[in-house]
Amino acid sequence: MKERFLFSPSELGIANTLNAMIYANPFRAKRHELDATFFDLVDTKDFDFDVEPVVDALSRNTYIQSYVHVAEILLNKALLRYRNASSKGLPASQFAAYEHLVYFYLFHWSLPMIDEYIRECLEYPSQNPKWITFRELEDKYRLYFEPLSASFSPAYPIEDFASFCFQFRRAFFHTFNTLKGNSSVLNELRARVWDSIFTHDMRRYIRSLYDRMSDIYTLICGPSGSGKEVVARCIGLSRYIPFDSRALKFERNFTESFHAINLSALSSTLIESELFGHKKGAFTGALADKIGYFESSGTFGTVFMDEIGDTDPLVQVKLLRVLQTRQFQRLGDTQALPFRGKVMAATNVDLLEAIEAGNFREDFYYRLCADQIRTPSLREILDDSPDEIEFLLGYICRKFVGVEEGEGLKKECLLWIRKNMPANYEWHGNFRELEQCVRNVMVHGEYVPHHRKVRKRTSLSESEVEILVSIS
User: Fold this and answer.
1) Angle between the 313-325 and 268-276 helix axes, to the nearest 10 degrees?
2) CB of 437 within 8 A of CB of 417?
3) 58, burial (CB in 10 Å: exposed 0-12, middle 13-18, buried 19+)
4) Range list of β-strands (E), 8-108
5) Helical ranges in 146-267 per DSSP H
6) Nearest-CA neighbor of 276 among 262, 263, 290?
7) What distance, in Å, lies between the first and last C-alpha atoms of the chain?
8) C-alpha 288: how far from its chain's center?
9) What is the tens place of the pLDDT at every residue in 270-301?
10) What pTM does this model have?
11) What angle in degrees, to the nearest 10, is found between the helix axes of 64-84 and 9-23?
């Protein structure tokens, strides 16, 4: 009797679990629950599960090889059953499970190729290199979809699928690699950033929102030095960019899609010149035409305006008009130009208080706050996970002096902090102050906070110092 299914009931449970992983926020508990469910469902004997754990260099995930191994076996079994049986009577759920399992398998199978391409883009930011290995992904895509073409067509052509794969991995690359830390506070920030890129409903994002996220403006609030621009950069560099399979290129190198401007550092005229651009002679010193960030961002670029709470009310009016109409004019010109990119803004000012004081426009605020992210202070992070100070010091020290010297410098800084600074020190300058602390200890062997006097704690005994050094 011919089999009338692509997946048995137990196989379908495994396939649907893997498929759900595609759409889960990788930084939320649901994603880890799916990992556990997968291993509960898989019988290692059925899948020749003698797979050595291999740590994915980016995510530190030891399960990826197991996922790929099992998905490939399930897909090959399904292909064989399809060829040996009539497709008539097969429920749509079987084809849906097959389609999404192909997406799952191809994405994880292609991660090494995508990672290499990301590194190439970062190495040559002024270029838009070809993604040569895309052809390998295309061949695999056809291998699994063309045999079933008489029964159904995949929802996404290979170009769209490749664009999503590149975006997913790029978003993880920036969110995981750039937002440093192991605390639950930092992980919640990563999860929030992921939602800002893809929304909480990844399925809806893929169906209809991927090319409309420019209409959702992001406001990042948090204390000075807490990494607001880092968060903005993660989101801006992780946006969807279409792929052209004929040219083997994306529309642009993602490294050129993020434009940041600190509004508090410029006069109103220079702010408008940087953002709107200007015509020659528009003001004193305008010696040639200039294209502003609103124009150069393009459809998939991002303009990030830092210190938005310090802007002049007249500038706020002009920026509000851009957000409302999606149009702007260069200084000295009357022609209306379209703005197609995304706007992000950041401030350490309480904007609601600024509104009450008459320093910030309420209508402007409500245009900006559709998507809000708050960056935690360093004190909040350390209260949640006191040992995080060691991790962050290690990262900073390696960045300053390299891997070989970084470990020794980390021990020196950690010992100095624990010996000379209160355990509950506020770190008012947050991550930026921690970096300055490392520089001071590296140069002078000590750090004296500039904003207020810090009472030293009682000197440690020699035995306590030895213990601190040994555990570092």
Assistant:
1) 20
2) yes
3) middle
4) none
5) 158-178, 184-198, 202-204, 228-236
6) 290
7) 66
8) 37
9) 999 999 999 888 888 888 999 999 999 999 99
10) 0.89
11) 130
